[in-house]
Amino acid sequence: CFTCIAENWEISDDGTIITFTIREDAYWTNGDNITAHDFVYSWKRTLSPEINSPHAYLFFDIEGAKEFNKGELDSDALGIEAKSDNVLEIKLKGPVNYFTYITSTWITKPVPESVVEKYKENWTNIKNLVTNGPFILKNWEHDEKIVLKANPNYFEGSPKLNTINIFLCKDKYTELSVYEEGKIDGTWGWQSGIPSDKLEEIISTPLIKSQLLTEPRISTYYIGFNTRHEPGNNPLIRKAIALAINKNELKNNIFWKNQTVANQFTPSQVLGHDETIGIDFDVEKAKKI
Question: Which residues in the chain land under pLDDT 50?
Answer without folding.
Answer: 1-2, 191
